[in-house]
Amino acid sequence: MPYIEVKTNVQVQDHKQFIRELSSYAANVFNKPYVCVSLQDNLSIIFNDSDDPAYIIGVTSIGIDAATKKKLSKELSEFLEKELKASSDRGYIFFYGPDGANVGWKGSVCG
């Protein structure tokens, strides 16, 4: 199951709504029934010597390919610009692709 971790200096008014919308949005890109999402907002983040809206995103998924990364980078940037008012040049998206043997789920590992 993919996991998206959002860190931002923007205060999100409705956490549940934000993470539900992002989960649904990302699930379409991943072609999965759901995506796990966490949010840390209202953080002290300086990006390019400015405290304007900014973000740091971590996307973790087993077997994520280059085409999905590119599409997800575009889609996430658009989503965050709309929801956080943070332009795509005000954040980074980091992709992590652990081997299934390094991911625990349902009391076992995925590989």
TrEMBL record:
InterPro entries: Macrophage_inhib_fac, Tautomerase/MIF_sf
Keywords: Cytokine, Isomerase, Secreted
Compartments where located: Secreted
EC number, UniProt record: 5.3.2.1, 5.3.3.12
MF term (GO), any: dopachrome isomerase activity
Statement: the UniProt record of this protein carries the keyword Isomerase: yes
Catalytic activity: L-dopachrome = 5,6-dihydroxyindole-2-carboxylate; 3-phenylpyruvate = enol-phenylpyruvate
Annotated SUPFAM superfamilies: Tautomerase/MIF
Pfam families membership: MIF
Gene Ontology CC terms, in alphabetical order: extracellular space
Homology family: Belongs to the MIF family.
Protein name: L-dopachrome isomerase
